[in-house]
Each structure stands twice: as structure tokens, then as C-alpha cells.
């Protein structure tokens, strides 16, 4: 991938993805969307990548969402504004990804940018970050999952508050409502992110994938049915864990009182 609108680098088992349009508040045009999809495709496909961390360049914005200038140009005969089949950021419609994704919210997260944060599994925010779904103010709606994820994450009334008033909430409010996991001073965001990544990396990657897949697939079922299906192949990631080298390594490491050496196999 060329170093342009999306930057990537690998640090051990972690893929870092940066939306690199700070001059446009990291707004997402067609090229950016498909570059992000490429990055997330790589994350999904490579067994040695265990965690993805996504953020925006600079200190003002995670992402302002869809690039309205690009949308306006498309509406007036310019290049079409396209969203990949995996959704905004290559993530919001990727419902089969069982690896953990962390959003690092280093500024405003609006519209599609906020929807990417909601689609991530964990989110850590700088204290100056803000969140909003202002699409109705431009005559559109949050079709990248925002209208559906929001009530699932924060409840009906609070979701309707954001969807109907288009108000902007602070990082502190987002933390109180359960939209992010942690809020830290901006100067501490990188260190807090590194700490969170290290915490996740302590566990067997296949166990984390099983946890994520079981939770996601089980949410649409009754508790009894979700539990029963643990033994009938409904959760392939759980089956992979049960026959893995890592499950034996974890037991052995515990008995030997040492840190496990995970292989993700």
C-alpha cells in the first residue's frame, strides 16, 4: 500500500492503521475507504497479525466521516463516491472478523468515523475527543451500522437522543455511556494504547478470537441456545481453540509457572 491516505505498519503481532488525511480531518473518500479495506483484509488474512489498532493522523480528528466534498462532486457528475462491501473503514460491515480491533480516538469522531469506533471491539479516547452522528443535518443518515449499533451499545433513549438531536458528546460522556473503554489526557494516549495492547497480547490469540466470535454470534440467541451451540460447530473459532497447540501450551505454562509462548495455532 502506498504511503498516502492510509498508513500501515506492523509492530510484532499488531497491525497499526492510520487514516492519513489530517488536512481534511481524516474524512473518508472513496480511495481512503478502499485503502482501509485493503488494510483490514490483510489483518483478517495474515495469521501472524493478532490485533489491529486504527487511529487518525494528527491530534484533531479520528475521522470526520464521509468526505462531503467528494460526495458533492459525485452528485454533480464527478467520480462516484463508493463504499466497499466491508463498510466504512473496511470494518463497519465486516461481521465475520473474529480478531480484536482497537480504535484510538485522538480527536473528533463524526458520522462514519464514529461508526468505525462503534464497530471496533475496544476504544480508548483522548480527553478532547468528541462523538456525533450529524448526518441528518445534511439530509442523510448513519447507514454504516450507526443506527443499529448505537441502541445496542447505549440503549434506546440515549441512542435516539444522538440520532434525533445530532448533538455532540464529550469523551467523558462517551465513557459514561459505554461507547469507549477509557479516556486519558491527549499526551498520554500513545502510552495508554500501548498498555492496552500489551494487556490484550497476554492472552492466547485463538482464545480471544473464540471469545469475540462466541459473543457476537450468541447475541442474537437466547442464553440457553447460545450456550448449547458451543458444542455443535456454530462457533468455528471455539472449535479451533479446542484442538490448538496453544490450549496445551497454556496449561503447561501454568503448571510450570512461566509465561506462555503463544503461536496462534
From TrEMBL:
Write down what this protein is called: Carnitinyl-CoA dehydratase
- SUPFAM superfamilies attached to this UniProt entry: ClpP/crotonase
The family annotation for this protein states: Belongs to the enoyl-CoA hydratase/isomerase family.
Highest taxon of the lineage: Bacteria
> What's a GO biological-process term for it?
fatty acid beta-oxidation
Q: Which CDD domains match?
A: crotonase-like (cd06558)
The record's GO molecular-function terms, alphabetically, read: lyase activity
Q: Which gene encodes it?
A: caiD
InterPro entries attached to this UniProt entry: ClpP/crotonase-like_dom_sf (IPR029045), Enoyl-CoA_hyd/isom_CS (IPR018376), Enoyl-CoA_hydra/iso (IPR001753), Enoyl-CoA_hydra_C (IPR014748)
Keywords of the record: Lyase
EC number(s) reported in the record = 4.2.1.149
Phylogenetic classification of the source organism: Bacteria, Pseudomonadati, Pseudomonadota, Betaproteobacteria, Nitrosomonadales
Amino acid at each position: 500500500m502506498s504511503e498516502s491516505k492510509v498508513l500501515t505498519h506492523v509492530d510484532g503481532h499488531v497491525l497499526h492503521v492510520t487514516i492519513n488525511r489530517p488536512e481534511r480531518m481524516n474524512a473518508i473518500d472513496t480511495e481512503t475507504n478502499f485503502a482501509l479495506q485493503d488494510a483490514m483484509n490483510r489483518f483478517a488474512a495474515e495469521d501472524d497479525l493478532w490485533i489491529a489498532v486504527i487511529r487518525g493522523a494528527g491530534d484533531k480528528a479520528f475521522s470526520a466521516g464521509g468526505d462531503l466534498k467528494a460526495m458533492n462532486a459525485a452528485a454533480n457528475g464527478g467520480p462516484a463516491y463508493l463504499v466497499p462491501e466491508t463498510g466504512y473503514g473496511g470494518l463497519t460491515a465486516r461481521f465475520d472478523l473474529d480478531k480484536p480491533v482497537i480504535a484510538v480516538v485522538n480527536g473528533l469522531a463524526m458520522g462514519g468515523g464514529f461508526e468505525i469506533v462503534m464497530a471496533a471491539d475496544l476504544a480508548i479516547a483522548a480527553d478532547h475527543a468528541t462523538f456525533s452522528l450529524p448526518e441528518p443535518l445534511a439530509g442523510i443518515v448513519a447507514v454504516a451500522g450507526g443506527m443499529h449499533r448505537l441502541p445496542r451499545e447505549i440503549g434506546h433513549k440515549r441512542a435516539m437522543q444522538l440520532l434525533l438531536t445530532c448533538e455532540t458528546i464529550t469523551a467523558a460522556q462517551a465513557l459514561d455511556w459505554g461507547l469507549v473503554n477509557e479516556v486519558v489526557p491527549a499526551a498520554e494516549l500513545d502510552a495508554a494504547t500501548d498498555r492496552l495492547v500489551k494487556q490484550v497480547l497476554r492472552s492466547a490469540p485463538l482464545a480471544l478470537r473464540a471469545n469475540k466470535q462466541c459473543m457476537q454470534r450468541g447475541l442474537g440467541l437466547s442464553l440457553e441456545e447460545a450456550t448449547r451451540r458451543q458444542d455443535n460447530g456454530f462457533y468455528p473459532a471455539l472449535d479451533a481453540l479446542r484442538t490448538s497447540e496453544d490450549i496445551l501450551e497454556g496449561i503447561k505454562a501454568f503448571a510450570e509457572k512461566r509465561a506462555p509462548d503463544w503461536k496462534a495455532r
